[in-house]
Amino acid sequence: MIRPIPFAGLLLAPVLLMSAVGLRTATASPETSLPIDFGFYVREEVACRNFEWLPADVDPPIKLVGKRYMSLNAGTGCDFTSVERKNDQLFEVAMACVFFMGGQHDSFDHRVTFRLLGAGRVEIANSGSVITTSVFRYCPQDQLPEPFSRNDISDRLR
Q: Cα separation of 29 and 46, whole Å?
């Protein structure tokens, strides 16, 4: 069962929502994952315990990356539909996303580029109407502030 993930006071449950409203869901195979640690990534210049985040941030300082899933921002979650390896460090990922907030939802396709920088660091470049590129580093969940440190994210990591 997929449980909603409290994401800084908001519910982030796009997979459950997509199923409930009959929207498409990604059909990911084992090849649709990245060779990184799965879990929370925080913008590199910010300490794991000390990031500030506003739900309206286009490119928030925290991302949840799973085997076939990534959160874009509050209320927007994406399932990987394909992962294309460009070289050993560069991956282009196509995603099917659902934005859900305040009872409204919208689905859309999105692309991101992951550049693996080593030692738990990754550069994530979002494409679309606003192009953002940020370097994130892996943060163990127990090093994050509430509510992130206590969220059950196991469904997203598989």
A: 34
Phi first, then psi: give them for residue 50, nearest 5 degrees.
Answer: -120, 30
Exposed (0-12), middle (13-18) or buried (19+): which is 131, by Cβ within 10 Å? exposed
Contact present, 10 and 74 (Cβ < 8 Å): yes
Give the Cα separation of 79 and 2 in Å (integer): 13
Query: What pairs with residue 77 in β-bridges?
Result: 71, 98
Tokens of 114: 């992951």
Q: CA 136, CA 71: separation in Å to the nearest integer? A: 13
Q: Among all chains, which residue has been given the structure tokens 């990604």? A: 26
Q: Which two tokens stand for residue 155?
A: 């469904």
Q: How far apart are CA 68 and CA 49, in angstroms?
A: 26
pTM (two decimals): 0.74
The pLDDT tens digits for 111-141 are 999 999 998 999 999 876 566 788 999 999 9
The residues that bridge with 93 in the sheet, in sequence order, are 83, 112
